[in-house]
Amino acid sequence: MHFAELRVLYHRLLFDLISRARAVHLEHWRGESVQRCSLLSIKTGGCSEDCAYCAQSAHYTTGIEREDLLPLERIRSAAKQARAQGATRFCMGAAWRGVHDGTEKFERVLEIVREVSQLGMEVCVTLGEIGDNEAAKLKAAGVTAYNHNIDTSPDFYPRIVSTHTFQDRVDTIRAVQRSGMSVCSGGIIGMGESADDRLRMLEVLSEFDPQPESVPLNCLMAMPGTPLADAPPVDIFDLVRLVAVARIAIPRARVRLAAGRTRITREGQALCFFAGANSIFFGDKLLTAENPAATADVKLLRELGLNLELLNEKQMSSVAAEPVRA
Predict the structure, then answer these.
(1) Is 272 one of the catalytic residues?
(2) Active site annotation includes 37
């Protein structure tokens, strides 16, 4: 959708906007199921990028200790625990600028993906910038989706990051699409951007062909030591409006409530679900930020009458076929 259309939608009366988004949601998503995704940081800290929101950047003193790539068995154990708690997608993030074919760390990631993909869940990774060769090999190893957020509008982006460009982000997404992996791409709000910046971000996302399969919407978690440490919390109605517009502009995408849910009341989350959100990250942490406990999420979804998306028959067959390990 073009920016002018998005802007008109965003500034409609709130209940009118939500009603339209709800109608679009029901048209494209039958039922009331919510996907639960688990996210694990498989390599933490020491990133060479200077993203102003990120506690893992080596440019800032945030108290986050650098950790090397986690051992395979530890990652596999975390994935199995996530599956047992109801996750249907397991996401793995590494604090790198990117990965390159032929390097030791990329080969280790491919080995990890092959193992995790045997557990029956969708497998998503976020490894920074990649090209066509890396994308093809990740898909062959079993990656279902690649996460690469565009974060904000093209115009505001240089105020948040200087070590790479907005076009670099787009180039990676194009490589992912050429490989046949689905794209998970969204942004972060609350970094000092305007409402128009948020809508420009949605404009870019909506004009990808195909559109992203999932759109995570993160509310900034202001991390001590980063340039955005003193940023104020996002207003809940701003988030609800963005969820609703995202649902209308990208109707077949899973609109995912991601970071920042610790600052959103149960009532605020309910309004987001009604406006079109149908996926959440759950677990104790999202990379380095706190996240609501899995049991609290299940309780809220059940109280709202929302179904918990389960593994499908094909995925369950994969789980049943999983070899027994000593």
Answers:
(1) no
(2) no
